[in-house]
Amino acid sequence: MAEREGERRAGPLLTRYGRWRRRLQYEFFGGVSATSKAVDVTVIIAILASVVVVMLESIPQLQRNYGGLLLGLEWGFTAIFTIEYVLRLMCAKRPGPYARSFYGVIDLLAILPTYLSALLPGAQALLVIRLMRMLRVFRVLKLVQYYDAGDILYEAMRASWRKIMVFMIAVLALVTILGSLIYLIEGAENGYDSIPRSIYWAIVTLTTVGYGDISPSTAAGQALAAVVMIIGYAIIAVPTGIVSSEFALMRRNYTAGKVCGRCYQADHPKNALYCHNCGDML
Amino acid sequence: MAEREGERRAGPLLTRYGRWRRRLQYEFFGGVSATSKAVDVTVIIAILASVVVVMLESIPQLQRNYGGLLLGLEWGFTAIFTIEYVLRLMCAKRPGPYARSFYGVIDLLAILPTYLSALLPGAQALLVIRLMRMLRVFRVLKLVQYYDAGDILYEAMRASWRKIMVFMIAVLALVTILGSLIYLIEGAENGYDSIPRSIYWAIVTLTTVGYGDISPSTAAGQALAAVVMIIGYAIIAVPTGIVSSEFALMRRNYTAGKVCGRCYQADHPKNALYCHNCGDML
Amino acid sequence: MAEREGERRAGPLLTRYGRWRRRLQYEFFGGVSATSKAVDVTVIIAILASVVVVMLESIPQLQRNYGGLLLGLEWGFTAIFTIEYVLRLMCAKRPGPYARSFYGVIDLLAILPTYLSALLPGAQALLVIRLMRMLRVFRVLKLVQYYDAGDILYEAMRASWRKIMVFMIAVLALVTILGSLIYLIEGAENGYDSIPRSIYWAIVTLTTVGYGDISPSTAAGQALAAVVMIIGYAIIAVPTGIVSSEFALMRRNYTAGKVCGRCYQADHPKNALYCHNCGDML
Amino acid sequence: MAEREGERRAGPLLTRYGRWRRRLQYEFFGGVSATSKAVDVTVIIAILASVVVVMLESIPQLQRNYGGLLLGLEWGFTAIFTIEYVLRLMCAKRPGPYARSFYGVIDLLAILPTYLSALLPGAQALLVIRLMRMLRVFRVLKLVQYYDAGDILYEAMRASWRKIMVFMIAVLALVTILGSLIYLIEGAENGYDSIPRSIYWAIVTLTTVGYGDISPSTAAGQALAAVVMIIGYAIIAVPTGIVSSEFALMRRNYTAGKVCGRCYQADHPKNALYCHNCGDML
């Protein structure tokens, strides 16, 4: 409201700017028109392409042969994302909150590295910086918010977060004890040369990953390993059960809910017009 | 209807042909008589046998000793499937749609290769062509349509497709970031010689496959690996939860599914007395 | 009835025999008294002990040092089981059906091997025979029938058997195609020297076992492997969903069910005495 | 009550002691005030820190360089836990039951080792003793009781314990037979040099861990391995289904759980108007 006030008082130029700004605003921040969807998709494709470039740069022979081209592409994407970032800053209702928001920070982190890499070169450092750009991949998930599916997934994760945490604490306590046990049974001569490494083995085994880089060679060690595997095989059921029940519950909350005002009959479908128990209008 | 008209006007021969055609039609396309079941089973057994032949041909010593016999069998099966294909084309109500249908195309692809292999020989090429014949195995699944079980599976997959996709995108973003992290931590000297290969490792670890062809050797790398494993161990619950809830929902729709006789409104609870859409007594 | 008749006509000795026989019958076949439970538990302990003996005999150094003792124990257990088998045959209501029943056959198979091993010696043969004795372990599961838990498990497996089968067929078709693909991509020089072995690899990968005895070395092969892993990671949800929904359904059938005769209100708990909708006696 | 009596008769000093004692009691045993929460958190942090110290001590180079410091920390933590243990003993309503309780015993076992290690030194022995201290990690789980999540997890595990056990017995019988089979097929020359080791392999494979330290090399062995993997891939659904249904049930009891005010009959459906046990209006 105050904004429109300001525009009315301002000259036609500023007004046009304001209109243009609101338009951009709409396109950039959760607009649902075809244009804003196109903007989002374009941005995501650009992000994926830039990530692919970073990956290709990490392959030695490609780096050797096409290093210059890849570097050029990298700078090109950085330029595009810089312009996008500036536009977002300009058209945001309040630039401050956006700049401090999760995606605002990521947008900035996604362009800074390349510029920094110009000032201070150095392979290792560059890699660390490139890695941060990987975070852009998360932006792809912004698309999710357009899908009910994404919401449901997010809800389920949020609802079962606490239970999963408790389960994880129990698992960590378990692997700590099992790891120490195997450390005592097998000892350093069989590759279990410290409790942390033994715990690493316990995690590898309990999660049924089983690299085989460290594996028990004594009979007692193999017996303990068998126990660890069977435990891991059985308790995988716990997080699954947690999330499954969350899904089932949400499902029910989505489908059924209406309650009849006369006979208190519950769980009518969303589209119910009459109580299916007493026939009264809902 | 029009067909029968045509037959009445046509001579006895054409009529007999028409009757014979309709009979074949019935047997070949989703008929439920003992004969058509037998036809299907025979076809499936032939398919499996031909696939087995292809497999045996790929075993060096068998190829050396029984190469001729296997080649003969291969041509025999091709002949059988060609005749089947021609019959299907002839007896289909409209040959065009069938030829363009999913199974029509597969039926053609399943016989072409051998003939092509006669024109242009070459081991590698032949293998690619033989591989396509493998697609025939999918035909086995046609049997599924006779089972309620198959429908339920298909329904559940279709219903949860979108959620699974969103989950997969999240997982891919995750392995990209984790793979880059391990690439920075372990580096080329420990086998992580490029980001794509590191992402391959991340997938191997997150899905709890754990080949062990590449495994972390530094303490930091093993710590990250442990995190990846535990994440993979926990989030397996998500697709499972999605599909489980789908099954549970469908189950309910199958068991408690009163349908109103007036407005055909479905899925009333077992204890519904009135249609909750039009208020009519059920 | 007829039996008791026979006894009354028979002399006191035969009567005592009949009484003794009925007693044994009760103890041996699903009796629920403390004695019959003791009998079962004893049998099971003996089975486990005999299995352990077979295992120990397979360990080279133990075989060398305690071969005689272990052989003695083996013969001891065989004697015990022979007596048990004879008693069961004598006291069974009708010896024929028992001898032809699943457990009857296993009981016989569990004692025959040792006697046969006396006639025709030979390590390999002996092992095969010993293996059959392993089947005795199944007898332990007889205990299950005393637990509601076992019934529920059995019910769930039986109910979801068909769906699981369909799923398995689909998985087998999938691994066949994926195995052939990797065979074409990697080829014999990377260890994929035949389609069957490549299918073995595909199963190892899809089921997230991941031995690492055969693993892709080319970039394309690793990409395909990643796809296989992610598929395997996602579709594990299907059998889980099937069985979960079965359990949930049975659970509901166990808990809820009573329907009110007046207002047709369903799903009252088993122990409900009054309808919770209209208060009418159930 | 008797306690307060005692205090009134006692002098002011004893009264102050009693008040102080009741205060400590409140703080130490399941109090819900900010202070007692702080006490718990402090204890847990100390436990984790001491466990970390034990781990670090097990790393050779750290042991070499910072052995003294780590030993000091170890003694420091032992002192803290000793004081805590004594305070708990003093302020417990009845010292005896606490000392004999699960956590009482663990508290004692957690401090004894270090003192014993002073009397009888020796690396191996020390390690065994240190390991026991690991059990302290379980104390962390005491925090769980403050979370509804923990209760739900515990309930679900308790409710499905029996079914899981039955499943485990079946799995053990299965791996015994499969292990013996592979032992017969592959034999000692391929690493399967005894039935126990073959059973270890069967467990490694069935649980989809797949170390690869022992893997089949013959065609028959790989075929059997494939069967084992697919079985393991399918039956993982069973424990998951068990726990999932438990969660779903508890969820329902939590959400829809009306309790009758007259006969305290629980778990009425949401739409219950009358108690289904005594017919009283809810």
Describe the structure.
Four copies of one chain form a homotetramer. By secondary structure, chain A is mostly helical. Chain A folds into two domains: 2-146, Voltage-gated potassium channels. Chain C (Four Helix Bundle (Hemerythrin (Met), subunit A)), CATH 1.20.120; 161-256, Helix Hairpins. In chain A, 74% of the residues lie in helices and 2% in strands. In chain A, helix 2 packs across helix 4 (60-91), helix 9 (148-186) packs across helix 10 and helix 9 packs antiparallel against helix 11 (219-235). The longest helix of chain A is centred in the middle third of the chain and has 39 residues, at 148-186. The first copy, chain A, is flat, with a radius of gyration of 28 Å. The two termini of chain A are 40 Å apart. The interface between C and D is large, with 70 and 62 residues.
Which helices and strands appear, and what pairs or packs with what?
The structure is a homotetramer of 282-residue chains.
Chain A: H1 2-9, H2 12-28, H3 34-57, H4 60-91, H5 95-100, H6 102-119, H7 123-134, H8 136-140, H9 148-186, H10 195-206, H11 219-235, H12 237-255, E1 256-258, E2 268-269
Antiparallel strand pairs in A: 1-2
